[in-house]
Specification:
Layout (H helix, E strand, L loop, with lengths): L1 H17 L4 E10 L4 H12 L4 E5 L6 H7 L5 E5 L23 H19 L3 E5 L14 H4 L3 E2 L17 E2 L12 H18 L3 E5 L6 H15 L4 E3 L2 H6 L2
Parallel strand pairs: 1-2, 1-7, 1-8, 2-3, 3-4, 4-5, 6-7
Helix pairs in contact: 1-6, 1-7
The site of zinc ion has 5 residues, from strand 1.
Amino acid sequence: MMDDFESVIAGELDRWQQAGKAAQFWLRDDDAVEPTALLDRLLDISATFSVPLTLAVIPAYTGEALAERLRQEPSCSVTVHGWSHRNHAGPDEKKQELGGHRAAADVLAELKQGFDRLAGLHGERFVPMLVPPWNRIDAGLVPHLAVLGYQALSVYGPEKPAALPLINTHVDVMDWHGTRGGRDPQALAVEIAARLRHMFDNGGTMGLLTHHLVHDEAVWDFMSALFEVTARHPACRWTPVADILRGQ
Ligand SMILES: [Zn+2]
């Protein structure tokens, strides 16, 4: 089965190689606040395969301990994951921290506080990008983010026109609505290949979304298998998010 998995992704990357092109991949992992054994596992797997990692950190609950741990990790970037990851939507709505439920000025004040806090804690590891919790943000807030210092926004799905450059994720390893474990690796491979075909004609990146605190073994196995296939393929470039931002 892993052979199929490998051939689906490598087959697509071979086409890029024959065309003299390289596909940019990037890895975003959400919800970090402190050092844990699971964070160590994530940092270890990304270091093993030289895959640069972007952590979306929840500012309200994080502190010096995470900053200290990441000082040993030169290829790990930090971005802003809302403020407290609190849901302000009603029971019948999709969860949102950054929706239209509160005054825009209050939400923006929190996003400024989150930016300043993580920039102060993480220095040059900090990338001025907002990752909205649950990948949702009220469209009316987006034009105000640049004033706060944000240079990019990262949500989930194909990029749409926005008031700020979008660096999205496109493939989510988790089965949130079913098993709440890892999704079928073959289905993930097919999705990655489809994203690569879209990128071949339209540009963009292949953003992989993970959540290290809730991975089951299937997710860790998938990540190892994917990194194994892609990291050694000449047409794949796992790219630091700061480089993607500079290239926008
Ligand atoms: Zn989150």
